[in-house]
Amino acid sequence: MGCNLAIAGVTGAVGQEFLKILDEREFPFSSLKVLASSRSAGKKINFRKKQYSVEELTKDSFAGVDIALFSAGGARSKDFAPAAVKAGAVVVDNSSAFRMDPEVPLVIPEINPEKIKQHKGIIANPNCSTIIGIVPVWPLHRANTVKRMVISTYQAASGAGYPAMLELENQTREILDGKEPTCKAFPYQIAFNVFNHNSALGPNGYNFEERKMVNETRKIFDCADIAITCTCIRVPVFRAHCESINLEFADPITAEQVRDLLSTAPGVALIDDRENNRFPMPVDASGKDEIFVGRIRQDESITDNRGINIWVAGDQLRKGAALNAVQIAEKLL
Q1: What is the average per-residue pLDDT within 309-331?
Q2: The pTM is what?
Q3: Which of 7, 30, 86, 249 is 20–30 Å from 21 (CA)?
Q4: Could you read off the pLDDT of 143-174 as tens digits, one per residue?
């Protein structure tokens, strides 16, 4: 017998990924509630040879629930997560609603699992780009303090949900048929195009995604003075984000030492074949749990061998979202 489980936002891209991962990992539960907005109430979901009826997410949805996995958006998390906690559930929240709350642990199990037990009812799942970027950086930081990170992201449509993935598919067809692309999920054409991440720009010119990566990394690493700068970009890929990461270390480190550290790092896999010019791609990471790392090389512009470049690819819907939350739930059990 396992826990009484609820999934809030079950009909969305991450909600559907929750179900896949719970099944693959044989997560033990004795009851399951599937919750979504009133628009989806009554829909049928087949899971583990049983049919479940989607219920409307309300403040009364959580009686008897032990663990609630939330991926219903920040506004709904703020509305309904406190009610779930009041009913006795532990919430693992995938939105940005609670990430920077000093009372809420922000957890990546490969980095700071000890924070889970400090929860007061809510545990926050980090942003997908943060998870994908820093899972491979953490073992390097532990071995040799990272003083500065320069990150450029190449973010898939999946980060904006099913409608955005569908828009990429439809626009590709429209353009190949000689039609004007229809833009609804994104402000600009995503097919055959790249553009600044579609999150709000702050007065300093950085978008919200970039600010999230900076603030969340500092909180997860428990390192307020690590220097981080980001440029976050949308690219025409269905799922799996890529990131170019430049690291400046406190002490000298070689590309070979980095490769050795990453070869045994939890949640990391190497694709670093210089001979065949073969490095991580979104097609490698899609549907996979690992963060793939390659293009490991010395940054020759930084003195004393203290600079390293790496390139990473990770499935935004899996380790970047649903898998990380399920790993947290497993540790709660």
Answers
A1: 97
A2: 0.95
A3: 86
A4: 999 999 999 999 999 999 999 999 999 999 99
Distance from the Cα of residue 226 to its chain's centroid: 21
Residue 241 is among the residues annotated as catalytic for this protein: yes
Q: Pick the catalytic residue: 141, 232, 241, 242?
A: 241
Could you confirm whether 128 is annotated as catalytic?
Answer: yes
Domain locations along the chain: 3-125+321-332, 131-316
| Residue appearing with tokens 């694709």 | 271
- Residue 193 CB neighbours (<10 A): 15
With beta carbons less than 8 A apart as the criterion, state whether 158 and 264 touch.
no
Q: Are 3-125+321-332 and 131-316 equal in CATH topology?
A: no
Catalytic residue from among 3, 128, 232, 242:
128
**CATH T-level assignment (fold) for domain 131-316:** Dihydrodipicolinate Reductase; domain 2 (3.30.360)
Nearest to 220 by CA among 155, 330, 326, 142: 142
Closest CA to 239 of 133, 152, 155: 155
User: How much of the chain is in helix, strand and coil states, percent to nearest 5?
Assistant: 35, 25, 40
Which pair of structure tokens corresponds to residue 49?
Answer: 């040879």
Q: Tokens for 216?
A: 């969340």
